[in-house]
Amino acid sequence: MKVLVTVGTEQFQFDRLMKAVERLAAGQAENQFVVQYGSSQYVPVGSNVEAFTLLPETRYRDVVRNSDVIMTHAGDGSLAMANQLEKPYLLVPRRAKLSEHVDDHQLELADLAGKHHVPTAVSPDVDWLCGELEGFTRQPRFQPFYIDKSRPCDRLRELTLGRRGKVMLVTSGGGHMDTMKAIRPFWDEFESRCWVTLNDTDVGDDSAATVYRGVGPTNRSLVKLCKNYARARRWIDRERPDVVLSTGAAIAVAVMRAAKDVHPATQTIFVEAPTRVADLSLSAKLAIWMRCLDAGTCFHEPIAQQYGHFHLV
């Protein structure tokens, strides 16, 4: 059996999962493990283990298709791909206390998915986690858990009040980009568009649009926030967008603040990720705190109840 282990494109280590996978592989010589370890500092080894940091998206999709089962962090993009290909998958959420992420939104998503009978492995202990992984490999099963990412489209049409000139699309890779592509029926209605993203992000087949590149990685970096703000002022002045639309990533804060400073008529909208179940991402919170967010959408009711800016879809 071919087992794919993936931790997505997060800029945080997931050494706990890597150590558990190494122990699992040592006891399952009959299985082959392909491990995408990302920013993890611990890299699993073994005669039946192949490990890599990242792969180009097309190659990565081939690896996913050729796998029999998937063990993945509770990330938006990885979850969507596993469901799309109908592969048996196990969600292993990251934990903030173990410096695996900035908060526990992956735990919240795993809890929600578990209520829909999706297999999850949530133990903070490496030995116990290894046991959970082993149990899944003995009895793998596919349980669909699908969130329709195109749901914001109708609400976005209402929020933009008929503005259909130029839209500036702000996002990063992984799940953020997946959500942006899912709401394409909305932003395709604009007369023109441009992109703001990071150097390692592919915008796909949208070659006719101008693409601006920010400085990354951006997680909790005040220096890079300031650098991206300086760049964003130039981009906004050049493009004069009617709407700045973001599906996440810290660079959105810099672009939205620049839009309000350079071209106040620009409307700023934040589509929160479907993986955010109980609270907003730090980027969305910063956009509210910096008074540069006009409106947003969210997929889960607890967020809409807490934040007046955000509309449930």
CATH superfamily of the largest domain, called what?
Answer: Glycogen Phosphorylase B
- Can you tell me the residue ranges where pLDDT is under 50 for at least 5 consecutive residues? none
SSE topology string: EHEEHEHEHHHEHHEEHEHEHEHE
CATH architecture of the largest domain: 3-Layer(aba) Sandwich
Structural class: alpha/beta
* Integer count of domains: 2
Task: Name the overall outline.
Answer: elongated
Query: How is the biggest beta sheet arranged?
Result: 7 strands, parallel
Report the helical percentage.
Answer: 25-40%
Strand residues, percent: 15-25%
Q: Report how far the terminal alpha carbons are from each other.
A: 40 Å
**Radius of gyration computed on alpha carbons:** 20 Å
Structural notes for this entry:
The chain has 313 residues and is an alpha/beta fold. It folds into 2 domains: 137 residues, Rossmann fold, CATH 3.40.50.2000; 161 residues, Rossmann fold. It has 12 helices and 12 strands. Strands 8-7-6-9-10-11-12 form a 7-stranded parallel beta sheet, sandwiched between helices. It has a 5-stranded parallel beta sheet with strand order 3-2-1-4-5, sandwiched between helices. Helix 10 links the parallel strand 9 and strand 10. Helix 9 packs across helix 10 and helix 10 packs parallel to helix 11. The two termini are 40 Å apart. GO terms for molecular function: hexosyltransferase activity.
